[in-house]
Protein backbone atom coordinates (compact mmCIF):
# COMPACT_ATOMS: atom_id res chain seq x y z
CA UNK A 1 0.00 0.00 0.00
CA UNK A 2 2.81 2.40 0.89
CA UNK A 3 4.68 1.72 -2.36
CA UNK A 4 1.52 2.16 -4.41
CA UNK A 5 1.10 5.69 -3.04
CA UNK A 6 4.70 6.82 -3.71
CA UNK A 7 5.10 9.41 -6.49
CA UNK A 8 8.30 8.76 -8.51
CA UNK A 9 9.70 10.35 -11.71
CA UNK A 10 9.98 6.84 -13.17
CA UNK A 11 7.70 3.88 -13.56
CA UNK A 12 7.74 1.84 -10.33
CA UNK A 13 6.41 -1.69 -10.31
CA UNK A 14 6.02 -3.65 -7.11
CA UNK A 15 6.41 -7.41 -7.45
CA UNK A 16 5.28 -9.82 -4.74
CA UNK A 17 6.89 -13.23 -4.24
CA UNK A 18 5.72 -14.15 -0.73
CA UNK A 19 9.08 -13.89 1.01
CA UNK A 20 10.88 -16.67 -0.84
CA UNK A 21 14.24 -14.99 -0.29
CA UNK A 22 16.44 -12.37 -1.92
CA UNK A 23 17.59 -14.60 -4.80
CA UNK A 24 14.02 -15.48 -5.79
CA UNK A 25 13.00 -11.81 -5.58
CA UNK A 26 15.86 -10.76 -7.84
CA UNK A 27 14.99 -13.48 -10.36
CA UNK A 28 11.43 -12.16 -10.41
CA UNK A 29 12.83 -8.73 -11.19
CA UNK A 30 14.98 -10.08 -14.04
CA UNK A 31 11.93 -11.75 -15.60
CA UNK A 32 9.81 -8.60 -15.33
CA UNK A 33 12.45 -6.13 -16.57
CA UNK A 34 12.01 -4.65 -20.07
CA UNK A 35 15.44 -3.03 -20.49
CA UNK A 36 18.76 -4.42 -21.75
CA UNK A 37 20.43 -4.23 -18.35
CA UNK A 38 19.52 -5.09 -14.78
CA UNK A 39 20.77 -3.07 -11.81
CA UNK A 40 20.50 -4.60 -8.34
CA UNK A 41 20.23 -2.42 -5.23
CA UNK A 42 19.58 -3.73 -1.72
CA UNK A 43 16.73 -2.33 0.34
CA UNK A 44 19.07 -0.61 2.82
CA UNK A 45 21.13 1.20 0.14
CA UNK A 46 20.74 4.90 -0.58
CA UNK A 47 21.80 5.54 -4.18
CA UNK A 48 24.00 8.52 -5.02
CA UNK A 49 22.70 10.83 -7.83
CA UNK A 50 25.28 9.33 -10.25
CA UNK A 51 24.72 5.64 -9.46
CA UNK A 52 22.22 4.70 -12.18
CA UNK A 53 23.90 6.86 -14.85
CA UNK A 54 27.33 5.42 -14.09
CA UNK A 55 26.10 1.83 -14.33
CA UNK A 56 24.34 2.64 -17.59
CA UNK A 57 27.45 4.36 -18.98
CA UNK A 58 29.62 1.31 -18.29
CA UNK A 59 27.08 -1.13 -19.71
CA UNK A 60 26.69 0.94 -22.91
CA UNK A 61 30.44 1.47 -23.32
CA UNK A 62 31.46 -2.18 -23.11
CA UNK A 63 29.96 -5.48 -24.15
CA UNK A 64 29.45 -8.24 -21.60
CA UNK A 65 30.30 -6.27 -18.44
CA UNK A 66 29.38 -6.86 -14.83
CA UNK A 67 29.42 -3.40 -13.23
CA UNK A 68 30.51 -3.33 -9.58
CA UNK A 69 29.46 -0.18 -7.73
CA UNK A 70 30.97 1.13 -4.52
CA UNK A 71 29.35 0.61 -1.13
CA UNK A 72 29.89 3.01 1.77
CA UNK A 73 28.56 2.77 5.33
CA UNK A 74 26.51 5.25 7.32
CA UNK A 75 26.96 3.96 10.84
CA UNK A 76 24.97 4.48 14.00
CA UNK A 77 26.20 7.30 16.26
CA UNK A 78 27.50 4.86 18.87
CA UNK A 79 28.88 2.13 16.60
CA UNK A 80 31.16 -0.37 18.36
CA UNK A 81 34.82 -0.81 17.50
CA UNK A 82 34.22 -4.00 15.51
CA UNK A 83 31.67 -2.27 13.27
CA UNK A 84 34.06 0.66 12.75
CA UNK A 85 36.76 -1.83 11.77
CA UNK A 86 34.48 -3.49 9.20
CA UNK A 87 33.53 -0.14 7.68
CA UNK A 88 37.22 0.80 7.38
CA UNK A 89 37.94 -2.61 5.79
CA UNK A 90 35.31 -2.00 3.13
CA UNK A 91 36.70 1.45 2.44
CA UNK A 92 40.22 0.01 1.93
CA UNK A 93 38.77 -2.68 -0.33
CA UNK A 94 37.25 -0.11 -2.69
CA UNK A 95 40.36 2.07 -2.55
CA UNK A 96 42.42 -0.90 -3.75
CA UNK A 97 39.96 -1.50 -6.59
CA UNK A 98 40.11 2.16 -7.57
CA UNK A 99 43.93 2.21 -7.50
CA UNK A 100 44.28 -1.00 -9.49
CA UNK A 101 45.86 -2.84 -6.56
CA UNK A 102 43.01 -5.36 -6.63
CA UNK A 103 41.51 -6.86 -9.79
CA UNK A 104 37.69 -6.94 -9.76
CA UNK A 105 36.27 -10.45 -10.00
CA UNK A 106 33.36 -12.67 -9.06
CA UNK A 107 34.25 -12.58 -5.35
CA UNK A 108 33.41 -8.84 -5.37
CA UNK A 109 29.98 -9.33 -6.94
CA UNK A 110 27.87 -8.08 -4.03
CA UNK A 111 24.11 -7.95 -4.56
CA UNK A 112 23.80 -4.51 -2.98
CA UNK A 113 25.13 -2.58 -5.99
CA UNK A 114 25.91 -4.27 -9.31
CA UNK A 115 24.63 -4.44 -12.87
CA UNK A 116 24.72 -6.96 -15.73
CA UNK A 117 23.10 -7.48 -19.15
CA UNK A 118 19.64 -9.02 -18.84
CA UNK A 119 20.33 -11.44 -21.70
CA UNK A 120 23.36 -12.93 -19.94
CA UNK A 121 21.45 -13.19 -16.65
CA UNK A 122 18.68 -15.11 -18.40
CA UNK A 123 21.13 -17.37 -20.25
CA UNK A 124 22.84 -18.52 -17.04
CA UNK A 125 19.53 -18.99 -15.23
CA UNK A 126 19.68 -16.01 -12.86
CA UNK A 127 20.39 -16.37 -9.16
CA UNK A 128 20.48 -19.77 -7.48
CA UNK A 129 17.37 -19.50 -5.33
CA UNK A 130 18.17 -22.37 -2.96
CA UNK A 131 21.42 -20.82 -1.69
CA UNK A 132 20.88 -19.07 1.64
CA UNK A 133 24.01 -16.94 1.28
CA UNK A 134 26.58 -15.92 -1.35
CA UNK A 135 24.10 -16.39 -4.21
CA UNK A 136 25.34 -13.09 -5.68
CA UNK A 137 28.97 -14.29 -5.71
CA UNK A 138 27.84 -17.64 -7.12
CA UNK A 139 26.03 -15.81 -9.93
CA UNK A 140 29.16 -13.73 -10.59
CA UNK A 141 31.17 -16.94 -10.97
CA UNK A 142 28.73 -18.39 -13.50
CA UNK A 143 28.63 -15.10 -15.41
CA UNK A 144 32.43 -15.12 -15.55
CA UNK A 145 32.37 -18.67 -16.94
CA UNK A 146 29.81 -17.40 -19.44
CA UNK A 147 32.39 -14.94 -20.76
CA UNK A 148 31.53 -11.71 -18.95
CA UNK A 149 34.20 -9.51 -17.38
CA UNK A 150 34.11 -7.22 -14.35
CA UNK A 151 34.49 -3.46 -14.09
CA UNK A 152 34.67 -1.38 -10.93
CA UNK A 153 32.60 1.84 -11.07
CA UNK A 154 33.89 4.17 -8.32
CA UNK A 155 31.27 6.88 -8.94
CA UNK A 156 28.33 4.48 -8.64
CA UNK A 157 28.14 4.91 -4.87
CA UNK A 158 25.51 3.31 -2.69
CA UNK A 159 25.39 4.23 0.99
CA UNK A 160 24.32 1.44 3.31
CA UNK A 161 22.47 2.49 6.43
CA UNK A 162 24.20 0.09 8.81
CA UNK A 163 22.49 -0.17 12.17
CA UNK A 164 23.04 -3.85 12.98
CA UNK A 165 24.01 -4.87 16.47
CA UNK A 166 27.21 -6.75 17.23
CA UNK A 167 25.23 -9.98 17.49
CA UNK A 168 23.64 -9.39 14.07
CA UNK A 169 27.04 -8.64 12.53
CA UNK A 170 28.48 -11.87 13.93
CA UNK A 171 25.48 -13.76 12.58
CA UNK A 172 26.14 -12.27 9.12
CA UNK A 173 29.77 -13.40 9.26
CA UNK A 174 28.65 -16.88 10.27
CA UNK A 175 26.33 -16.91 7.25
CA UNK A 176 29.21 -15.77 5.05
CA UNK A 177 31.22 -18.81 6.12
CA UNK A 178 28.23 -21.08 5.52
CA UNK A 179 27.65 -19.49 2.12
CA UNK A 180 31.24 -20.04 0.96
CA UNK A 181 31.08 -23.67 2.06
CA UNK A 182 27.98 -24.11 -0.10
CA UNK A 183 29.70 -22.26 -2.95
CA UNK A 184 32.64 -24.69 -2.80
CA UNK A 185 30.32 -27.69 -2.78
CA UNK A 186 28.62 -26.45 -5.93
CA UNK A 187 31.73 -25.11 -7.68
CA UNK A 188 34.99 -26.67 -6.36
CA UNK A 189 37.04 -24.51 -8.75
CA UNK A 190 36.16 -21.42 -6.67
CA UNK A 191 38.18 -22.68 -3.69
CA UNK A 192 41.52 -20.98 -4.55
CA UNK A 193 39.71 -17.62 -4.86
CA UNK A 194 37.58 -17.49 -1.71
CA UNK A 195 38.30 -17.13 1.99
CA UNK A 196 37.34 -20.77 2.55
CA UNK A 197 40.54 -21.83 0.78
CA UNK A 198 42.79 -19.53 2.81
CA UNK A 199 42.69 -20.73 6.42
CA UNK A 200 46.48 -20.54 6.72
CA UNK A 201 46.70 -16.96 5.41
CA UNK A 202 47.62 -15.62 8.85
CA UNK A 203 50.61 -15.11 11.09
CA UNK A 204 51.77 -18.28 12.87
CA UNK A 205 50.54 -16.91 16.22
CA UNK A 206 47.10 -16.01 14.89
CA UNK A 207 46.85 -19.39 13.16
CA UNK A 208 47.67 -21.27 16.35
CA UNK A 209 45.20 -19.19 18.40
CA UNK A 210 42.38 -19.56 15.85
CA UNK A 211 42.77 -23.33 15.79
CA UNK A 212 42.71 -23.47 19.59
CA UNK A 213 39.60 -21.28 19.91
CA UNK A 214 37.74 -23.23 17.24
CA UNK A 215 38.61 -26.50 18.96
CA UNK A 216 37.25 -25.13 22.25
CA UNK A 217 34.32 -23.44 20.45
CA UNK A 218 34.84 -20.18 22.36
CA UNK A 219 31.99 -17.64 21.90
CA UNK A 220 32.75 -14.35 20.15
CA UNK A 221 31.32 -11.94 22.76
CA UNK A 222 34.09 -12.34 25.40
CA UNK A 223 36.69 -12.14 22.61
CA UNK A 224 35.11 -8.87 21.46
CA UNK A 225 35.61 -7.38 24.91
CA UNK A 226 39.33 -8.10 24.69
CA UNK A 227 39.43 -5.69 21.77
CA UNK A 228 38.57 -2.84 24.12
CA UNK A 229 41.75 -3.22 26.16
CA UNK A 230 44.22 -2.03 23.48
CA UNK A 231 41.96 0.99 22.90
CA UNK A 232 42.06 1.86 26.59
CA UNK A 233 45.85 1.62 26.43
CA UNK A 234 45.91 3.88 23.36
CA UNK A 235 47.23 1.04 21.19
CA UNK A 236 44.78 1.25 18.31
CA UNK A 237 47.01 -0.81 16.00
CA UNK A 238 46.62 -3.77 18.34
CA UNK A 239 42.85 -3.26 18.42
CA UNK A 240 42.73 -3.33 14.62
CA UNK A 241 44.78 -6.54 14.55
CA UNK A 242 42.44 -8.09 17.12
CA UNK A 243 39.30 -7.09 15.20
CA UNK A 244 40.84 -8.53 12.04
CA UNK A 245 41.39 -11.78 13.92
CA UNK A 246 37.77 -11.71 15.15
CA UNK A 247 36.52 -11.20 11.60
CA UNK A 248 38.16 -14.40 10.34
CA UNK A 249 37.28 -16.26 13.54
CA UNK A 250 33.57 -15.47 13.07
CA UNK A 251 33.79 -16.60 9.44
CA UNK A 252 35.36 -19.93 10.40
CA UNK A 253 32.91 -20.43 13.23
CA UNK A 254 30.19 -20.26 10.60
CA UNK A 255 32.00 -22.86 8.50
CA UNK A 256 32.45 -25.10 11.53
CA UNK A 257 28.76 -24.84 12.45
CA UNK A 258 27.66 -25.65 8.90
CA UNK A 259 29.99 -28.44 7.86
CA UNK A 260 28.51 -31.92 8.17
CA UNK A 261 31.67 -33.86 7.37
CA UNK A 262 34.17 -33.24 10.17
CA UNK A 263 37.02 -34.59 8.05
CA UNK A 264 36.36 -31.85 5.48
CA UNK A 265 36.70 -29.20 8.17
CA UNK A 266 39.96 -30.76 9.38
CA UNK A 267 41.28 -30.64 5.83
CA UNK A 268 40.22 -27.02 5.35
CA UNK A 269 42.02 -25.82 8.48
CA UNK A 270 45.09 -28.07 8.32
CA UNK A 271 47.34 -26.39 5.78
CA UNK A 272 50.20 -28.34 4.24
CA UNK A 273 53.80 -27.67 5.32
CA UNK A 274 56.49 -28.26 2.70
CA UNK A 275 59.52 -28.98 4.85
CA UNK A 276 62.79 -27.73 3.36
CA UNK A 277 66.08 -29.43 4.21
CA UNK A 278 69.57 -28.88 2.86
CA UNK A 279 72.55 -30.90 4.10
CA UNK A 280 72.70 -33.63 6.74
CA UNK A 281 75.51 -34.04 9.26
CA UNK A 282 77.04 -37.35 10.20
CA UNK A 283 77.57 -38.19 13.91
CA UNK A 284 80.00 -35.73 15.46
CA UNK A 285 79.48 -33.02 12.82
CA UNK A 286 78.40 -29.64 14.20
CA UNK A 287 74.84 -28.48 13.52
CA UNK A 288 74.19 -25.20 11.72
CA UNK A 289 71.32 -23.53 9.96
CA UNK A 290 72.04 -25.51 6.79
CA UNK A 291 73.34 -28.79 8.27
CA UNK A 292 70.90 -30.98 10.22
CA UNK A 293 72.43 -33.76 12.35
CA UNK A 294 71.15 -37.05 11.03
CA UNK A 295 69.91 -38.13 14.48
CA UNK A 296 67.60 -35.08 14.55
CA UNK A 297 66.27 -36.00 11.12
CA UNK A 298 65.57 -39.50 12.43
CA UNK A 299 63.62 -38.08 15.40
CA UNK A 300 61.59 -35.85 13.10
CA UNK A 301 60.71 -38.67 10.70
CA UNK A 302 59.88 -40.95 13.65
CA UNK A 303 57.49 -38.30 14.99
CA UNK A 304 55.72 -37.99 11.65
CA UNK A 305 55.30 -41.76 11.50
CA UNK A 306 54.21 -42.14 15.13
CA UNK A 307 51.69 -39.29 14.95
CA UNK A 308 50.23 -40.61 11.68
CA UNK A 309 51.06 -37.61 9.53
CA UNK A 310 50.27 -38.13 5.86
CA UNK A 311 53.62 -37.65 4.10
CA UNK A 312 52.71 -37.03 0.46
CA UNK A 313 54.83 -36.08 -2.53
CA UNK A 314 54.98 -32.56 -3.89
CA UNK A 315 53.47 -33.89 -7.13
CA UNK A 316 50.52 -35.38 -5.20
CA UNK A 317 49.84 -32.02 -3.55
CA UNK A 318 49.87 -30.30 -6.93
CA UNK A 319 47.40 -32.88 -8.26
CA UNK A 320 45.03 -32.19 -5.35
CA UNK A 321 45.43 -28.47 -6.01
CA UNK A 322 44.74 -28.67 -9.73
CA UNK A 323 41.67 -30.86 -9.22
CA UNK A 324 40.34 -28.50 -6.52
CA UNK A 325 40.23 -31.26 -3.93
CA UNK A 326 41.65 -31.10 -0.44
CA UNK A 327 44.76 -33.10 0.52
CA UNK A 328 44.45 -35.33 3.59
CA UNK A 329 44.44 -33.58 6.94
CA UNK A 330 47.90 -33.42 8.56
CA UNK A 331 49.64 -33.74 5.20
CA UNK A 332 53.39 -33.04 5.06
CA UNK A 333 55.77 -32.73 2.09
CA UNK A 334 59.54 -33.31 2.26
CA UNK A 335 61.94 -31.41 -0.01
CA UNK A 336 65.75 -31.41 -0.08
CA UNK A 337 67.52 -28.49 -1.75
CA UNK A 338 70.75 -28.51 -3.77
CA UNK A 339 71.30 -32.29 -3.78
CA UNK A 340 74.19 -32.82 -1.37
CA UNK A 341 75.94 -36.19 -1.36
CA UNK A 342 74.72 -36.81 2.21
CA UNK A 343 71.16 -36.93 0.86
CA UNK A 344 72.16 -40.35 -0.51
CA UNK A 345 74.42 -41.61 2.27
CA UNK A 346 72.49 -40.33 5.31
CA UNK A 347 68.94 -39.20 4.49
CA UNK A 348 67.91 -41.71 1.83
CA UNK A 349 68.24 -44.81 4.08
CA UNK A 350 65.86 -43.20 6.60
CA UNK A 351 63.41 -42.17 3.90
CA UNK A 352 63.34 -45.75 2.62
CA UNK A 353 62.95 -47.10 6.14
CA UNK A 354 59.86 -44.95 6.77
CA UNK A 355 58.63 -45.26 3.16
CA UNK A 356 58.35 -41.48 2.88
CA UNK A 357 58.36 -39.72 -0.51
CA UNK A 358 60.61 -36.71 -1.02
CA UNK A 359 61.63 -34.28 -3.76
CA UNK A 360 65.29 -33.39 -4.30
CA UNK A 361 65.89 -30.11 -6.15
CA UNK A 362 68.98 -30.63 -8.31
CA UNK A 363 71.49 -28.05 -9.58
CA UNK A 364 72.56 -29.74 -12.80
CA UNK A 365 75.82 -27.83 -13.26
CA UNK A 366 77.01 -28.92 -9.81
CA UNK A 367 76.26 -32.65 -10.02
CA UNK A 368 79.34 -34.67 -9.09
CA UNK A 369 81.19 -31.52 -7.94
CA UNK A 370 81.14 -29.41 -4.78
CA UNK A 371 79.23 -26.36 -3.58
CA UNK A 372 80.98 -23.27 -4.96
CA UNK A 373 78.08 -20.80 -4.84
CA UNK A 374 77.62 -20.39 -1.07
CA UNK A 375 79.70 -18.20 1.22
CA UNK A 376 78.63 -20.14 4.34
CA UNK A 377 81.69 -22.14 5.40
CA UNK A 378 79.64 -25.20 6.38
CA UNK A 379 78.37 -25.50 2.78
CA UNK A 380 81.27 -24.20 0.68
CA UNK A 381 83.11 -27.16 -0.82
CA UNK A 382 80.46 -29.64 0.35
CA UNK A 383 80.16 -32.62 -2.09
CA UNK A 384 77.14 -32.79 -4.41
CA UNK A 385 75.38 -35.97 -5.51
CA UNK A 386 76.65 -37.78 -8.59
CA UNK A 387 74.43 -38.80 -11.48
CA UNK A 388 74.96 -42.42 -10.45
CA UNK A 389 73.57 -41.74 -6.95
CA UNK A 390 70.68 -39.79 -8.41
CA UNK A 391 69.80 -42.71 -10.67
CA UNK A 392 69.96 -45.14 -7.74
CA UNK A 393 67.47 -43.06 -5.74
CA UNK A 394 65.06 -42.57 -8.64
CA UNK A 395 62.30 -44.86 -7.46
CA UNK A 396 58.60 -44.39 -6.78
CA UNK A 397 59.27 -42.45 -3.58
CA UNK A 398 62.04 -40.07 -4.68
CA UNK A 399 61.33 -37.47 -7.35
CA UNK A 400 63.51 -34.70 -8.72
CA UNK A 401 62.82 -31.05 -9.30
CA UNK A 402 64.95 -28.53 -11.16
CA UNK A 403 66.97 -25.94 -9.24
CA UNK A 404 68.62 -24.33 -12.31
CA UNK A 405 72.06 -25.10 -13.73
CA UNK A 406 74.17 -22.72 -11.68
CA UNK A 407 72.11 -21.62 -8.66
CA UNK A 408 72.35 -17.97 -9.66
CA UNK A 409 69.65 -15.51 -8.60
CA UNK A 410 67.24 -15.48 -11.55
CA UNK A 411 66.01 -11.94 -10.94
CA UNK A 412 69.52 -10.62 -11.70
CA UNK A 413 69.86 -12.37 -15.09
CA UNK A 414 68.71 -11.38 -18.60
CA UNK A 415 65.49 -13.10 -19.60
CA UNK A 416 67.28 -15.29 -22.17
CA UNK A 417 69.58 -16.66 -19.46
CA UNK A 418 66.64 -17.12 -17.10
CA UNK A 419 64.91 -19.25 -19.71
CA UNK A 420 68.09 -21.24 -20.35
CA UNK A 421 68.55 -21.96 -16.62
CA UNK A 422 64.94 -23.06 -16.24
CA UNK A 423 64.56 -25.13 -19.40
CA UNK A 424 67.99 -26.74 -19.66
CA UNK A 425 68.14 -27.91 -16.03
CA UNK A 426 64.91 -29.85 -16.49
CA UNK A 427 66.02 -31.40 -19.79
CA UNK A 428 69.38 -32.50 -18.37
CA UNK A 429 67.84 -34.24 -15.34
CA UNK A 430 65.31 -36.06 -17.49
CA UNK A 431 68.02 -37.18 -19.92
CA UNK A 432 70.49 -38.29 -17.24
CA UNK A 433 68.09 -39.96 -14.79
CA UNK A 434 65.28 -41.00 -17.11
CA UNK A 435 62.46 -39.50 -15.06
CA UNK A 436 59.93 -36.72 -15.48
CA UNK A 437 60.71 -33.39 -13.80
CA UNK A 438 57.50 -31.56 -12.89
CA UNK A 439 58.56 -29.07 -10.21
CA UNK A 440 60.99 -26.19 -9.80
CA UNK A 441 62.62 -24.33 -6.89
CA UNK A 442 63.85 -20.74 -7.22
CA UNK A 443 67.47 -20.26 -6.10
CA UNK A 444 67.43 -18.29 -2.84
CA UNK A 445 63.67 -18.11 -3.32
CA UNK A 446 64.08 -15.03 -5.50
CA UNK A 447 61.63 -14.49 -8.31
CA UNK A 448 59.60 -11.77 -10.01
CA UNK A 449 56.62 -11.92 -12.39
CA UNK A 450 58.89 -12.49 -15.41
CA UNK A 451 60.68 -15.41 -13.71
CA UNK A 452 57.40 -16.98 -12.56
CA UNK A 453 56.01 -16.62 -16.09
CA UNK A 454 59.12 -18.33 -17.52
CA UNK A 455 58.65 -21.28 -15.14
CA UNK A 456 55.01 -21.63 -16.22
CA UNK A 457 56.00 -21.30 -19.87
CA UNK A 458 58.54 -24.11 -19.46
CA UNK A 459 55.74 -26.48 -18.48
CA UNK A 460 56.43 -27.05 -14.79
CA UNK A 461 53.34 -27.95 -12.77
CA UNK A 462 54.36 -25.93 -9.70
CA UNK A 463 57.28 -24.14 -8.05
CA UNK A 464 58.58 -23.50 -4.54
CA UNK A 465 60.11 -20.44 -2.93
CA UNK A 466 61.57 -20.10 0.55
CA UNK A 467 58.97 -17.85 2.16
CA UNK A 468 57.80 -19.39 5.44
CA UNK A 469 54.27 -20.63 5.91
CA UNK A 470 51.77 -23.38 5.26
CA UNK A 471 50.08 -23.99 1.93
CA UNK A 472 46.34 -23.95 1.34
CA UNK A 473 44.14 -24.10 -1.78
CA UNK A 474 44.55 -20.32 -2.09
CA UNK A 475 48.36 -20.46 -2.14
CA UNK A 476 49.89 -19.45 -5.52
CA UNK A 477 50.88 -22.72 -7.20
CA UNK A 478 54.09 -21.25 -8.60
CA UNK A 479 55.05 -19.53 -5.35
CA UNK A 480 54.47 -22.28 -2.80
CA UNK A 481 55.68 -21.56 0.71
CA UNK A 482 58.11 -23.79 2.54
CA UNK A 483 59.13 -24.39 6.14
CA UNK A 484 62.90 -24.28 6.49
CA UNK A 485 64.11 -26.80 9.07
CA UNK A 486 67.29 -25.49 10.66
CA UNK A 487 69.93 -27.85 11.92
CA UNK A 488 69.95 -25.89 15.18
CA UNK A 489 66.18 -26.12 15.73
CA UNK A 490 65.06 -27.76 18.93
CA UNK A 491 62.39 -30.44 18.70
CA UNK A 492 59.84 -27.91 20.02
CA UNK A 493 60.83 -25.51 17.23
CA UNK A 494 60.28 -28.29 14.73
CA UNK A 495 56.79 -29.00 16.10
CA UNK A 496 55.79 -25.32 16.06
CA UNK A 497 56.99 -24.96 12.47
CA UNK A 498 55.11 -28.12 11.54
CA UNK A 499 51.87 -26.76 13.06
CA UNK A 500 52.05 -23.13 11.96
CA UNK A 501 54.69 -22.80 9.23
CA UNK A 502 57.08 -20.86 11.48
CA UNK A 503 57.80 -20.14 15.13
CA UNK A 504 54.73 -18.19 16.41
CA UNK A 505 55.27 -14.71 17.81
CA UNK A 506 52.30 -13.05 19.51
What are the key terms here?
elongated; 15 strands; 506 residues; 5-stranded mixed β-sheet
Q: How would you describe the overall organization of this protein?
A:
This protein has helices at residues 2-5, 22-32, 51-61, 81-98, 118-123, 135-145, 166-186, 204-216, 220-226, 228-232, 236-258, 262-270, 294-306, 314-322, 342-354, 387-393, 415-433, 449-457, 491-500; strands at 37-41, 45-47, 65-75, 113-117, 149-162, 274-277, 279-281, 291-293, 310-311, 331-338, 358-362, 398-402, 439-441, 462-464, 483-484. By secondary structure, the chain is an alpha/beta fold.
User: What is the overall number of helices?
Assistant: 19
Amount of beta strand: 15-25%
The residue ranges in which pLDDT falls below 50 over 5 or more consecutive positions are 230-234
Q: Give the overall shape.
A: elongated
Instruction: Give the termini separation.
Output: 57 Å
Q: Please provide the count of β strands.
A: 15
Mean pLDDT score: 92
Specify the helix fraction band. Answer: 40-55%
Describe the secondary-structure layout.
Layout: H1 2-5, H2 22-32, E1 37-41, E2 45-47, H3 51-61, E3 65-75, H4 81-98, E4 113-117, H5 118-123, H6 135-145, E5 149-162, H7 166-186, H8 204-216, H9 220-226, H10 228-232, H11 236-258, H12 262-270, E6 274-277, E7 279-281, E8 291-293, H13 294-306, E9 310-311, H14 314-322, E10 331-338, H15 342-354, E11 358-362, H16 387-393, E12 398-402, H17 415-433, E13 439-441, H18 449-457, E14 462-464, E15 483-484, H19 491-500
Parallel strand pairs: 3-5, 6-10, 6-15, 7-8, 9-10, 10-11, 11-12, 13-14
Antiparallel strand pairs: 1-4, 2-5, 3-4
Helix pairs in contact: 4-11, 7-11, 8-11, 9-11, 13-15, 17-18
Amino acid sequence: TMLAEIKTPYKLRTLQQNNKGAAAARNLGIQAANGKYCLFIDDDIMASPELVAEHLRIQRSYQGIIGLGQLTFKLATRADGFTLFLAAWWQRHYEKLAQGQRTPGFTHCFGGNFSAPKKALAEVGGFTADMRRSHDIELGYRLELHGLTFAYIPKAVGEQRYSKTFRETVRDLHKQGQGELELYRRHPATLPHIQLGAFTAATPGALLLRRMLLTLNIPVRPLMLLGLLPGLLNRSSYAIAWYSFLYTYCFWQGVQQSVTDRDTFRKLKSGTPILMYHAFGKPGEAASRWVLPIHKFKWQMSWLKWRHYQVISLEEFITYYRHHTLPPARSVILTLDDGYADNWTLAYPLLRRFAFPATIFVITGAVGKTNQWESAKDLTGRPILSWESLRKMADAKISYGAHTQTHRSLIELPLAEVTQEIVASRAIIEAEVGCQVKTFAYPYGKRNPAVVAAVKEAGYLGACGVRSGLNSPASPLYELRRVEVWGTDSFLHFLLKLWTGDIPRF
